[in-house]
Amino acid sequence: MRIVLILLLLAIQGVQAAEYKSNKSCKECHEKIYDEYRMSAHSKGFFTDELHREVALKASPKRYECAVCHMPAANNMSDILSGNAFPDPSNVTHTDAVSCYFCHTIAYVKESHKFNINLPAKQAEGYKPSLFGSLKDPDHNDKHSALHSPIYRANACKGCHSHKLNDFNTTIFEAMKPGEDSKECIKCHMPMLPGGVEKLNHKNRTEHMSHRFPGIRDENFRKKGVDIAVTSKANTIMVTLVNKMPHPLIIQPARAKYLRVSVLRGDKKIWSNYKNSPEEDRKSYFAYIFKKNGKRINIPATATETIAHNLPAKGSLKLEYRVPSLESGDIVKVELILRLAKRDCSKVVTLKEYIWTEEQIIKSVEYKVP
Taking every pair of C-alpha atoms in the chain, what is the biggest distance, in angstroms? Predict the structure, then answer.
């Protein structure tokens, strides 16, 4: 599989003859879009995303196999994948991460069993490149021509955000089922914002699609993806968790989400669904677990088995908790918690940035016992 991929990328690189346009060069005309993009996860790559870099190095210290999606504009992709070259901080096609230029030169998304591949359009040598997007009447400038392409409303996200299987045919992540398209992704993660796509706005556009790609790290955005309902009867608490999203609750292999259910009486916590670790309550702990030959491992690259405790797209889960006693006026507090790097990650990689390991609240509700 790796050999086939390298040969395919060699063929692709052979037709990308037009001069690469860096992210910063886009800022001259698309300042608002650039500022949004700089706040997005797409702007983070090998050099700026600590968790991704440490896991990638642990999985393959001599070969950056994640480059196809995390460094797709690399001008030496075949060497990167084969191990003959390594990410270079002086190479802008490496430091641009998921670059503006790459995303807007996709001509076709090739679907395959293990993972999909974005195929860029052929660019004529000596001419300014052609960039694609969803606008019906796009704006040209002195750096590039602009063309409308229907894939930017339907399929563009499928190249990297659909699914990934490792070399042992084991699922590492799955956000989309075969046959699904990107329309739901775009509706949520590229909402319309006021203002045109260009600084000068020659065509007086009143709105544009956000390039901030709000997601799990956005405190307000992530609340919209779930509902939590709480009721009680005698000494039983009933909690219903609803996944409103068109993809599973857990997608990325490093993450964990879990419920923390507490009963508060006055200023005291009299009961909780776990004491030390959220994994004690397995039914409300959502994460991927990877195994190799029957033994649990923490880096999915060599896994031979995946166990996913997940909540499917548009799915719901009803939980019941028996508690020692409930009194009128008690407060039942239910929090859905996020960790960008679950505790297992600390066993194999060192993460200096606190954001990866801190508990972050996705949504919190309180119920007063009648």
Answer: 77
pLDDT digits (tens, 9 = 90+) for 304-335: 999 999 999 999 999 999 998 899 999 999 99
Note if the pTM is more than 0.85.
Answer: yes
The C-alpha atoms of residue 251 and residue 174 are separated, in whole angstroms, by 6
Q: Tokens representing 124?
A: 């004529």
Amino acid letter for position 145: S
Cα–Cα distances in angstroms (integers) from residue 146 to residues 10, 67, 128, 356, in the given order? 26, 26, 10, 39
DSSP state at residue 280: G
Domains in the chain: ranges and CATH = 2-209 (no CATH), 224-368 (2.60.40.10)
Q: What are phi and psi of 286, to 5 degrees?
A: -115, 120
> How far is the C-alpha of 97 from the C-alpha of 74, rounded, in Å?
9
Backbone angles phi, psi at 352, to 5 degrees: -85, -30
| Contact status, residue 131 vs residue 73, Cβ threshold 8 Å | no
**What whole-number distance in Å separates Cα of residue 327 and Cα of residue 338?**
30
